[in-house]
Design a protein that fits this description.
Layout (H helix, E strand, L loop, with lengths): L1 H5 L3 E2 L2 E13 L3 E11 L1 E11 L5 H14 L5 E5 L6 E7 L4 H12 L10 E11 L4 E10 H13 L6 E3 L1 H12 L8 E7 L4 E7 L2 E8 L3 H8 L5 H12 L5 H32 L8 E5 L8 H9 L3 E3 L2 H7 L2 E3 L11 H12 L6 H60 L9 H20 L9 H10 L2 H4 L2 E8 L2 E7 L6 H9 L4 E3 L8 E8 L7
Parallel strand pairs: 2-5, 4-15, 5-9, 10-13, 13-14
Antiparallel strand pairs: 1-2, 2-3, 3-4, 6-8, 7-8, 10-11, 11-12, 16-17, 17-19, 18-19
Length: 538
């Protein structure tokens, strides 16, 4: 989904986005499934279904899977457990902590124990204990043959269903028990047993750590077949239904009692054999203080009492529904939770929520790599789009600024030309235009104050020129008057030679000026006056 490219589905046990998981449990007589939803910290068992198989062929299982997936409701992910009995288990203690580190070496650690080549094996493990002080991990490794895994995948592929996780039902049961029912007691051990229709799964838990497991490849159905090996699977299922129910018929009840006694005796025998097996496998073995049972076999009449008598160990039946509610898991009214229909719920919770075991992790890594590639590609595309967008936006803004700049420069040039007669032709920068205007202004200021160190206006000097020189009597025609560095240059002519001497006398009488050059003996003249700097000039 698109959202998975940018954000993860969950962080720890908190689901960021809403997710629905469909969990399957397959056995020889029944296909059951539970639909679980996860959102935030909320878990809801939305629905459950089970279909009884008419026979044990592959087509019946495929059809049951098809019917469930098209009926139970929408889902995002499909999980199930490995159904074959050919699983190799081994406990290892490794001198480091961290699942990723363990993944790198676990195959080599168990290679010598495998009954098949390592390149044909699919291996996963459960971390049962981490000692941070000693920096060591205790793990229980499980290995299966790739071909067996592919055979199970065929059921779902032929039904058109994609499986995301395949876990181990014993690991799933351990996850469920440890997250809901287990109470840690020092120096104690527990046998956790799933008495199912097609297998008996026995887990030895010591001080909260799963030390060893034993898978007995036959369950209720196999026990009944050993009682009467000519009974067909369908008839066995009907007898089993009768065994678990009380019809009130004396003869039938007597027969059911005899069958149940034989089953319980066989079951207890396997328990005692398992205890002996665990004692040999576990160096620091502690005799189990109690036996906790789940599964369809626990519904046999007088099961609790009979097993306690035969095994001489306290026995209790794990209440699945009670433990779900204890963990604040909501059970929808459409969901059926009992000994027969609980396995798929346990598998779903472990695979999608509690645990890390997944025999399809090699395919998941490919999917994760694909997701990572999509994330990187998306980041690159978004980054490129952002860079291109910023570039074109900046170019657009620069263009607007250039237009405003040129407009302001043009307006400034026009104003300066009109008011200060500044020639800005050929000037491209506003700084140059401003500098030219400032230069022009400095020149004007210099002229204005050049005649008076005490900041008197040069108009005082011009006033004296105007009042002392009688232009009318002289017939003075002044062509040009220029001021430069405290000098006034007069250019013009008088009407005749008779007034030329008078004009010279008037110039000599000026108090604020000194005649710098004599008048020429011509009507047309050029004369230079020097402004005086002394205080009397005022």
């Amino acid at each position: 989904m698109l959202k998975d490219i940018f954000i993860p589905t969950k962080i720890g046990s908190y689901y960021i986005s809403y997710k629905k998981v469909l969990a399957f449990e397959l056995n020889t007589t029944l296909v059951q499934a539970s639909l679980l939803s996860f959102a935030g910290n909320k878990i809801v068992i939305e629905n459950s279904m089970s279909i009884t198989l008419q026979d044990e062929n592959q087509l019946s299982i495929v059809n049951a899977i098809k019917k469930i997936t098209t009926t139970i409701g929408t889902y995002d992910e499909v999980v199930t457990s490995f159904i074959r009995s050919t699983i190799v288990f081994k406990e290892l203690v490794l001198p480091f902590i961290g699942r990723e580190k363990i993944k790198m070496i676990v195959g080599y650690e168990v290679e010598s124990l495998l009954p098949f080549p390592l390149d044909e094996a699919v291996i996963d493990f459960m971390i049962t204990d981490e000692n941070k002080e000693k920096s060591q991990s205790t793990i229980l490794v499980a290995a299966v043959r790739q071909s067996d895994l592919d055979n199970q995948m065929d059921y779902f592929e032929n039904a058109g269903v994609k499986v995301d996780i395949i876990t181990i039902d014993m690991f799933a049961l351990y996850d469920f028990y440890m997250h809901g029912a287990y109470v840690l007691q020092s120096q104690t051990s527990v046998l956790l047993i799933d008495f199912g229709i097609d297998a008996i799964r026995i887990l030895y838990i010591q001080q909260g750590i799963l030390k060893s497991v034993r898978l007995i490849s036959y369950g209720l159905a196999g026990m009944m077949n050993r009682i009467d090996n000519e009974t067909s699977a369908l008839i066995q299922h009907r007898i089993l239904d009768g065994l678990l129910q009380h019809h009130g018929h004396e003869e039938q009840d007597r027969m059911n009692y005899e069958v149940s006694q034989k089953i319980i005796v066989d079951f207890c025998k396997q328990i005692m054999l398992s205890i002996s097996f665990f004692q040999k496998q576990t160096p620091d073995f502690i005799t189990p203080s109690k036996i906790v049972c789940v599964g369809l076999g626990t519904e046999i009449p007088s099961f609790l009492e009979q097993v306690t008598v035969h095994c001489k160990i306290p026995v209790e039946i794990l209440d699945i529904k009670k433990n779900l509610l204890k963990n604040n898991i909501i059970i929808h009214k459409k969901s059926k939770i009992d000994a027969r229909h609980s396995a798929s719920v346990i598998i779903g919770l472990s695979a999608a929520h509690y645990g890390d075991v997944n025999f399809l992790v090699y395919k998941q890594n490919v999917a994760r790599n694909s997701l990572l590639n999509k994330q990187l590609l998306s980041i690159i595309l978004i980054s490129c789009a952002a860079i291109v967008g910023v570039y074109f936006y900046s170019q657009y803004q620069l263009r607007i600024w250039d237009m405003e700049y040129n407009k302001s420069k043009k307006e400034m040039s026009i104003k300066l030309k009109e008011q200060m007669d500044v020639d800005t032709k050929g000037m491209k920068r506003i700084n140059d235009i401003v500098a030219a205007a400032q230069s022009k202004l400095e020149q004007a200021k210099k002229v204005c104050f050049s005649f008076s160190p005490s900041n008197h206006s040069f108009l005082r000097y011009l006033q004296e020129l105007s009042s002392k020189i009688d232009r009318q009597s002289l017939g003075l025609d002044l062509k040009k008057l220029s001021i430069h560095d405290k000098e006034i240059t007069l250019q013009g002519k008088v009407k005749d030679f008779d007034v030329l001497e008078t004009f010279a006398e008037e110039l000599m009488e000026l108090k604020n000026f000194t005649l710098k050059s004599k008048l020429p003996g011509e009507l047309v003249f050029t004369v230079v006056l020097q402004a005086k700097e002394d205080q009397d000039a005022k």
